[in-house]
């Protein structure tokens, strides 16, 4: 037999359809590691982009292209202005809604708080303090107010009998003597 005949005899095993494909699953710990690394790389990329932008601006100033730099900065400012206005409007409405949640006697005191997070914390603290306690004014239903079913039957036989009649469901009818 020659080499070519031997190679021709060797066949790759065929994969049948009944062979299940393994689903690649990533453990959560590994996911956290990769996610953390991705975030750190994104932060480094942002830092490098800022440094590159600053370097290009400095280079434009050194080359005497101040007019081009001013035009570029103005367009950047014009692009960011609508977002700034939306953010300011959101913060103003959020402050108003938070201050409205405060009791009326405390509104003037906390009107000048500028940080929204601090104001939210104040509102949650004050609203939790003034929450009315939950009180149940219903009489106890289990055992008719007695500590056990036997005590209930001995001390109030008429009430026990009435409650048993009211609670006569399917199971009580099946097991009644």
The overall pLDDT, averaged over residues, is 80
- Distance from N terminus to C terminus (CA atoms, Å) equals 95 Å
Radius of gyration: 38 Å
Strand content bin: under 5%
Which H/E pattern describes the elements?
HHHHHHHH
Helical run tally: 8
- In terms of per-residue confidence, which ranges show pLDDT below 50 for 5 or more consecutive residues? none
Approximate helicity band: 55-70%
**Class of secondary structure makeup:** mainly alpha
What would you call the shape? elongated
Largest sheet: none
Number of strands: 0
Short summary of the structure?
The chain has 177 residues and is mainly alpha-helical. Helix content is 67%, strand content 0%.
Keyphrases for this structure?
177 residues, 8 helices, elongated
Tell me what the structure shows.
By secondary structure, this protein is mostly helical. It has a domain at 28-129. Helices cover 67% and strands 0% of the residues. The mean pLDDT is 80.
Task: Give me the secondary-structure topology.
Elements: H1 3-9, H2 28-62, H3 66-101, H4 104-107, H5 116-129, H6 149-155, H7 157-166, H8 170-175
Helix pairs in contact: 3-5, 6-7
């Amino acid at each position: 037999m020659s080499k070519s005949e031997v190679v021709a005899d060797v066949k790759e095993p065929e994969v049948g359809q009944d062979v299940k494909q393994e689903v690649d699953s990533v453990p959560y710990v590994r996911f956290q590691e990769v996610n953390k690394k991705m975030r750190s790389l994104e932060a480094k990329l942002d830092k490098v982009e800022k440094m590159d932008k600053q370097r290009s601006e400095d280079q434009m100033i050194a080359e005497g292209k101040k007019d081009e730099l001013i035009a570029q900065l103005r367009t950047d400012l014009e692009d960011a202005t609508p977002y700034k206005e939306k953010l300011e409007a959101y913060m103003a409405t959020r402050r108003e809604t938070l201050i409205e949640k405060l009791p009326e006697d405390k509104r003037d005191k906390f009107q000048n708080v500028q940080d929204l997070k601090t104001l939210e914390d104040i509102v949650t603290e004050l609203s939790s303090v003034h929450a009315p306690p939950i009180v149940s004014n219903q009489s106890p239903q289990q055992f008719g107010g007695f500590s056990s079913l036997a005590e209930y039957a001995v001390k109030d036989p008429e009430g026990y009998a009435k409650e048993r009649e009211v609670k006569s469901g399917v199971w009580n009818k099946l097991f009644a003597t």
